[in-house]
Design brief:
about 350 residues; mainly alpha; ABC transporter involved in vitamin B12 uptake, BtuC; about 0% strand
Length: about 350
């Protein structure tokens, strides 16, 4: 005797794509940051709508202000790519600020110490910045690759050493006679070309864009990019798959530091034309935030860096025309950091409960 067995169809669960989940999370972080910033503005006795509209006018009000926003965004793009290089390999380079300072000083040293033909002088100075940034992360990279030392702690500590070391070199060793805390100006042959006469916006913008696009193509079109993505997804799996994880950790962190040093070289040769104490405060940290907000995407870093550049440029007019301080922007960024960090911790805990430990970039 046969009997029909009724089978209930199994409903497949729909999982949100990782990129969409990340994008929604970043938008939520921005919304929370805007609300938090508005609350702070109300507490200081200002109208949030007035402050935000003034901020927008300061960032995009005319061609000069747009150029100013792009100028502020240029080192953040390059620093953001530096952070992305580490993030996509499953690592955290929080020392981009220190690498930026070391690269900026190395570029200035080559710029005022040597006489070379125009063009070649710029390339040599930028190469010195790249080497200085890579050498500065060498010790944290070696200890991370060889002994598994936490690179977050070591790279954070290296920031303070780099800032204080460059301050000492600027004030006591290479200080310009009769000047402020700055070195001699670099030779004009080492300048990065300016794009407009009315702004210091320079060719460094194209360097940053080329780096972001080039790194994206490296990740998506090459076998080594696949290896890096695999490490970022799961280092244990990458090791079992035959990838030389320890060697790649060293290479990835060295490349990340080198790009961070390049950011400082671009800022020195394109904007200040000398090295000054505290010449680029916060650009490295902003780059790390931009990379996190972009969910580790080098193309996304272009847009998040433009966002932070606009905040920096617009805050100047905001401080002049309203009672809101520029520190509101710092609070704004801090809220974004907290929100993005909370998302990362939630995702890591959830993935760990599923037997996975990975970054979803």
């Amino acid at each position: 005797m046969s009997s029909d067995v009724s089978q209930t169809p199994v409903r497949s669960r729909w999982h949100m794509p990782a990129w969409l989940e990340g994008m929604i999370g970043q938008l939520i972080a921005l919304v929370i940051a805007i609300i938090g910033g508005a609350i702070i503005i109300v507490l200081v006795g200002e109208d949030p709508v007035l402050v935000f509209t003034t901020l927008l006018r300061g960032a995009f009000g005319n061609s000069e202000r747009i150029a100013g926003s792009l100028l502020q965004a240029t080192p953040i793009i390059i620093a953001g790519v530096a952070a992305c290089v580490a993030l996509r390999g499953g690592l955290f380079n929080i020392g981009v600020e220190g690498q930026l300072y070391m690269g900026g000083f190395a570029a200035a040293f080559v710029g005022f110490q040597f006489a070379l033909p125009a063009g070649l002088h710029t390339l040599v100075a930028l190469a010195a910045a790249v080497v200085a940034g890579g050498l500065w992360i060498l010790i944290p990279a070696f200890f991370r690759a060889r002994f598994g030392t936490n690179e977050v702690v070591s790279t954070i500590l290296s920031n303070y050493v780099a800032i204080l070391l460059t301050s000492y070199l600027t004030i006591d060793v290479f200080k310009r006679p009769g000047g402020w805390s700055e070195t001699d100006p670099v030779a004009t042959t080492a300048y990065l070309p300016q794009l407009f006469e009315f702004s210091r916006l320079n060719f460094g913008l194209f360097i940053g864009l080329a780096l972001a696009v080039g790194f994206h193509l490296f990740l998506t079109r090459t076998s080594r990019g696949y290896d890096m993505n695999t490490m970022g997804a799961n280092m244990k799996f990458a090791e079992y798959g035959g990838i030389a994880v320890k060697r790649n950790i060293l290479i990835i962190l060295l490349c990340s530091g080198a790009v961070g040093g390049l950011a400082g070289g671009v800022e020195t040769l394109g904007v200040h034309h000398r090295f000054m104490e505290g010449f680029a405060p916060g650009f490295g940290f902003d780059g790390v935030i931009a990379a996190l907000l972009a969910n580790g995407s080098p193309i996304g870093v272009i847009f998040t860096a433009l966002f932070f550049g606009a905040l920096r440029a617009g805050s100047l007019l905001m401080e002049v025309e309203t009672n809101a301080s520029r520190e509101v922007i710092t609070v704004f960024q801090a809220i974004i950091i907290l929100c993005v960090s909370a998302q990362i911790l939630i995702r890591r805990r959830r993935d760990s409960s599923q037997g996975e430990r990975r970054w979803k970039f």
